[in-house]
Design goal:
Blueprint lengths: L1 E6 L3 H10 L6 E4 L16 E2 L10 H20 L3 E2 L3 E5 L5 H14 L5 E4 H7 L9 E5 L3 E3 L1 H14 L3 E3 L4 E6 L4 E5 L2 E10 L5 H8 L6 E11 L10 E4 L9 E4 L5 E4 L3 E2 L10 H14 L8 E12 L5 E5 L2 E8 L5 H20 L22 H10 L6 E3 L4 E2 H9 L7 H8 L12 H12 L25
Parallel strand pairs: 1-2, 1-12, 2-9, 5-14, 12-20
Antiparallel strand pairs: 3-8, 4-8, 5-7, 6-7, 10-11, 11-12, 13-16, 13-17, 13-18, 15-16, 19-20, 21-22
Helix pairs in contact: 1-5, 1-8, 2-8, 10-11, 10-12
Length: about 475
């Protein structure tokens, strides 16, 4: 029997697992996918919000500001990409100025530091490519951008280094309360735990409702995005929003920590919790609204589009607490935007609940830091030459678009919770994320995966399950 089982290996579940790994406890994270970061956490705006948008006094507001403040030190400790680039919320009409000022006041009450309302001239001086049609903006210098894969994988790896067990391809089908705790029926058999953390994203309401008479409801809210090549990455430096409306913060235009330009998301409520397909209407909305806020977006430089799902709880609030009518079951539900920004604080809050509830004792040997995959592009010429001399695989370039070497891919496969699929390698190294979108490097990456994992090439998948790349051999048909 485990002390704690965490359902879900997204950013919230991995943040909770990492914080819980500070304590003397037998912890397991289960996820139905083949890797961490396969749900909401893999497809979002990659923004660390300043914290001015959430309602004053809400848990969203509190954890957003706390998570923002924690992110910089966490990025240093766990070695993932983060930049505090600041954000602008554009006001397009004079009659909307009261709404802009209300946003400023809300941000101040939420504890966001250094907020300012800028004139049109100040905005244009800061960001020359924003539309001439705006009349001013709210400037939040504490806003940032992050690599969502890097953050989630770093949290998971550090948790694993501290003894947390991860079980992938393990779908939770049913949960029963027992005298000792909980019995989870999964696709891989029965698991038992004294405590359960429900961090299951768009599926979290299903597990909550199994255990509680007080029901919650989560709607999958789809967001479509367009990603532009690095040639467009310097069009803006700040994250550009427009004044938020009923369905959130609207279409943003932002650089990414890797130098691309990102546009999106839409906010379309759907029924399918796996419905991550883009639509023509959704992408048209992204393009049209993005062009209303930033001039000269080079849409011919779009290299891919994608969609992600937000776990929108009906009350539009994080649900993080022990169930009153099912002691030992801890909800971490309704984690939509600003969930990524809030994740370090969410993890701490979950751990604090269980520390008090279970009487957890801190370890003497907790490992607080983790080193990511070496990026040769950040090394000096001398350092890179030395690295190649020590390990020639770093001189063998596999992904030309992103200049990713065989050495980086080998590291991605063999480190804690290593990559087992093309997407697993891509999220850890960016091999396949460039202009050709894996058209050139996929066969070579598959060869490395097959060799290192001692698998047949035909068993290598894009993202686990039945997503096999090779479905037959031509000469077998002769």
């Amino acid at each position: 029997m485990y002390d704690i089982i965490v359902i879900g290996a997204g950013v919230s579940g991995c943040a909770a697992a990492r914080e819980l790994s500070r304590y003397q406890a037998d912890i397991c994270v289960v996820d139905k996918e083949e890797d961490v970061c396969c749900g909401t956490s893999k497809a979002n705006s990659a923004i660390v919000h300043a914290g001015y948008d959430a309602a004053e006094g809400s848990l969203m507001a509190k954890l957003n500001v706390e998570g923002n403040l924690m992110m910089e030190q966490l990025s240093r400790d766990l070695d993932f990409s983060f930049r505090r680039n600041g954000s602008l919320v554009l006001c397009m009409r004079e009659e909307d100025r009261p709404n802009l000022e209300a946003l400023y006041e809300r941000g101040v009450k939420n504890g966001v530091k250094d907020l300012r309302i800028l004139t049109k001239e100040e905005v244009k001086e800061m960001e020359p490519n924003v539309t001439d049609n705006m009349v001013g903006a709210l400037y939040a210098p504490t806003g940032g951008i992050v690599c969502p894969f890097g953050l989630t994988i770093a949290l998971a790896e550090n948790a694993a280094m501290n003894g947390v067990e991860f079980k992938f391809n393990t779908e939770v089908e049913n949960i029963v309360k027992t005298d000792e705790g909980f019995e989870l029926t999964t696709s891989q058999g029965v698991l038992k735990a004294k405590y359960v953390v429900n961090a299951a994203g768009v599926h979290a309401d299903r597990f909550h409702n199994m255990m509680s008479a007080e029901k919650i409801h989560i709607t999958p809210r789809r967001g479509d995005y367009c990603l532009l090549d690095k040639t467009a990455g310097d069009l803006v430096d700040k994250t550009i929003f427009t004044l938020p409306g009923k369905f959130g913060k609207g279409i943003l235009v932002t650089p990414t920590v890797h130098g691309n330009l990102l546009l999106g998301p839409t906010a379309i409520d759907i029924d399918d919790p796996e419905g991550t397909n883009t639509t023509r209407e959704g992408l048209d909305e992204v393009i049209g609204k993005a062009q209303n806020s930033v001039n000269n977006i080079p849409m011919r430089q779009v290299i891919t589009s994608f969609a992600g799902l937000r776990a929108h709880e009906d009350q539009h609030e994080f649900v993080i607490k022990e169930l009153e009518d099912c002691k030992g079951f801890i909800d971490c539900a309704g984690i939509e935007s600003p969930g990524l920004s809030s994740s370090p604080a969410i993890g701490k809050m979950v751990a604090d609940i269980l520390k008090e509830k279970a009487g957890l004792k801190e370890k003497d040997d907790f490992i607080a830091t983790r080193k990511g995959i070496v990026d040769p592009k950040e090394l000096s010429k001398e350092e890179y030459s030395k690295l190649i001399k020590e390990n020639p695989a770093y001189g063998n370039i596999i992904c030309r678009c992103e200049t990713i070497s065989e050495g980086e891919i080998l590291d991605a496969i063999h480190r804690p919770l290593g990559a087992k699929s093309l997407d697993g390698v891509k999220r850890r190294t960016r091999a396949g994320m460039g202009r050709c979108q894996a058209g050139f490097c996929s066969p070579r990456t598959m060869e490395i995966l097959a060799r290192e994992l001692n698998m047949d090439m035909g068993e290598i998948t894009k993202s686990g399950g039945e997503s096999k790349i090779i479905v037959g051999i031509d000469k077998d048909k002769l």
